[in-house]
Amino acid sequence: MSYKPTVLLDVDDVIAKYTEFYIHLATEVTGVWFEPKDVTEWDIVAALKLKPETDLEIRELMNQRCTSIPCDEKAKEAVNKLHEISNVVFVTAPLNYGEWVAKRYTWLKTHFPWMEYYYPCKDKSFVAGDVFVDDRAENLLKWHDRCVLRFNGRGTAILWDTTFNQNAPTESDNGQPLIRTRDWEVVIGNVKDCR
Length: 195
Ligand SMILES: [Mg+2]
What we know:
This protein has 2 domains: 6-16 and 70-193, Rossmann fold (3-Layer(aba) Sandwich), CATH 3.40.50; 18-68. The protein is built from 7 helices and 6 strands. The chain has helices at residues 18-30, 44-47, 52-65, 73-85, 99-111, 137-152, 184-193; strands spanning 6-9, 87-92, 117-120, 131-134, 156-160, 179-181. Strands 3-2-1-4-5-6 form a 6-stranded parallel sheet, sandwiched between helices. Helix 1 crosses helix 3 and helix 4 (73-85) packs parallel to helix 7.
């Protein structure tokens, strides 16, 4: 029997359209029209030039309505394919360790009823896998340094390309490059290569 690889998937802005939903809520709260292309840096509050109290208001709404965050249809299709060839582990940093964690579980079960592995955690570098997809380069680099170099000895880090991570580092301190893509076939190809 061939080896069944494990793929770690970040959720927000890889599968769930978090930033798009945040922008929708920002428009609702402020009455100002924002678009996804306005978010050109990781700090969305700075990118949209929002006041901290506006961000708090948006986050409160986000917490209330997070089960309504849209799922990216292409991602859904690809993740279903990944499920056929690998162990799919959802590794996602919760907005809070209160109701967000349970609501995110509901969201994942709604879109991926077969879901078995769901790890809500702020530090993803303790979670082992063959391939890790995230839109935050820092998460991937930390994972590479701890999980790949110290524990596992192998692992592929894939940076999901977004408008707000264009200036992110794409190489770890020891020169390990991240693969930057927003093509699910690249992810599926890398997972298949682990078998
Ligand atoms: Mg993310």
